[in-house]
Amino acid sequence: MYVKKGFSKKKLEELAEDVVITEKLSPAQEAEARKQLAAARKKTQAGMTEQERLIANLLQLKFRLEEYINNREYDDQLTFGYFLKEYLQLIHKKRNEFAAEIDIHETLLSQLINNHRAPSESVIIRLELHSNNAIPATYWYRLVEKQKEHFIGTNKDLRKAEKKFVKNPLRVSI
């Protein structure tokens, strides 16, 4: 946010208090406010075309994906397969239909969704192209890399197995 040099922090806080409603609601008022918001959302959604609904859902998925890949925390539930499955659900495609649209075998798609296989760069690019650039390939790629980073950083068995291949390691500590 751009702030002119003449504003002090105290003045900014006072300004925020004037603009932001800070009134506390009782539980009953809060429940009523939620009810009214839900009704307003339902009314808005009822007036949306199927294309507008698709755009809204794509943006929601994109923002969830972006938020997760930019977050330092790792969640083993939020995998490439999870987000790919979410994508298929929001575009209302069956797996065989979608596999044909991006020209991969249905078995490969199933392996990707179930996290039995990592996607190739070509699959990642095809996902971007299929979404008409709504979800960039770099998001899918960064999601895969986040999974790999977690695996490498936490897999003690892999470190133990690979240790036997390292001879004469450096004797310094940094």
Automatic annotation (TrEMBL):
Which GO terms of the molecular function aspect are on file? DNA binding
| Domain HTH cro/C1-type span(s) in chain numbering | 84-128
On the tree of life, the source organism's domain of life is Bacteria
Extract the InterPro entries matched here: Cro/C1-type_HTH, Lambda_DNA-bd_dom_sf
Task: Please state what the protein is called.
Answer: Helix-turn-helix transcriptional regulator
Recorded source organism is Chitinophaga fulva
